[in-house]
Every structure is written in structure tokens, then in C-alpha cells.
Sequence to fold (275 residues):
Amino acid sequence: MLPLTLIRRPLTPAQADAIMRRAWIVPACFYAAGVAAALILVALIALGVPALGLRYGLAIVCILLVTFIPAAVAYARAPSRPPTVTATTTRQEERTVTELMITGDATFARSRNAGFAWGLSSIALCLIPLAFSSSTKNGFLMSLGAGVFIIYLLVKVPGLYFPQPHDVKVQKFLLFPEGFAFAERDLLLRIKDVNWNDVTGVGETVKGMTAIHWTSDGEDGVTWLPLKDPGLSYVALERLINYFASNPLRRRVLGTETGADVVRALLRGRDPDAN
Fold:
């Protein structure tokens, strides 16, 4: 998430969550800047400044303010949308294996993708009249480029304009009695496994990456966990990992369907052992 990636100093899980709860400030600042730009353009047009580009600039700004509303609202409300916890059962050789999956909410990613797709397409269409005002050739080329761009997205990536839950990639965490796994997204998608017996605790968050401290064969190490989904709480993650790292006897519940209730309780800050 943007607010955390801009902060270089180490943050505790509570501090990281507090910043995420104030994430609405980011889209609010962008909207304030957009409204200010629109008012300046309106004033210049009212004063009779002879520039055709002012009218098209105003149209582009207004389109951006409208098309990015879903993304801005999703960005602001994302921290209040908790992830889902499900139990998946598979058959491996002659035994049945149950694992728990924590899946981030897809609303934020869907609204963000749709906002950018509609916004960029609208800008491309608005530039066509401006290009024709300079020359017919420029207008034709701009029309061709905008048409190819929009048609390409509609054919190749139709989920950008009308995204469904399965069209977006959300962060997933897999929990099982031996440990947990998560995906690391860089140039290539890598799956990292962490053994419960090696985990010593959750550290601080630096630039949106949370440190998972572990010890294996007398060697201390750190695995950096990037939280890409804004609905995942850093405090809840720390509570979840520390609970199973310090309670070996309770790890067996992660291999059962009832373990989903235990994980949900931990994520919500409740006592999973309470009757």
C-alpha cells in the first residue's frame, strides 16, 4: 500500500495499522488537487482566455474525478474489509489433507483496476477532438491509437473494465500444521514456506514489508512478508503467527475444518480458546 511504502522508518504492527486506517487521506489529497485544477481551468475559461486546450483539460480533469471515484472509495474503505478464511481439503495419495486459506478481499483491487481502465480510456477519447483541432492527420492518428488501445483491452483483458472477483489477484496465505506459506511478488511469483518450529516472532514493518524472524540450525534469519491487501491487519497477522508459534499443541487444528473458526477469532482479536 502506498502510505506504508513511502515510510522508511521501522513501524510496529499497531503503528502500521494506524497509518492504514488513515489511508483515506491519500485519495482525499488527490481529489482536492483535482478540484483545485478544475476551478482554475473554469476561472481561466470564464476570463476568456483564448485556448482550446483549456476546455479539453477541464473535460479530462472532470472525467478523472468521476471515473476514479470507485477506486478512491475502495482505497479509503479497504482497511475495514476483513479477509476470508476457508478450509480446503485435498486428496494426497492415500490420505486427506486439510489446509486453511486466508484470502484478501477483492473489492479494492477490482475498483482500482476499473477506475484506471475507464479513466485512461476516457482521457484517450477526450484527446481526439483536441488532435483534430490541430490537423486532420493528427486527429486520425489519435482516433486510431485510442481505438486500438480500447479494443485491445476489451479483447485481451475484459476484466479491467468490468472486473469480477476471479479477474483480480489477491493476496493469499496458506496455513497448515507444519507452518504457513505466502506468495512473494517480484519479477517472478515465488512461494515461501515458513516452519512454525523456526519462527521466533514478528518484527517491525519497513516500507510495507513485515519481518518474520526465524531460527534454523543455529542460524538466525528474517523473511520479509509484503502485505499487498489493505484489509489484512498487521496486528492481526502478528497475533496469528505468535499464537501458533508459541502453542505447538494447537497447530493440529490448522489441519481441520474447525481451524477456520480459530483463525477467524485470532484475526478479529478474540480469544480462540474461550468457550
Summary: The chain has a mean pLDDT of 78.
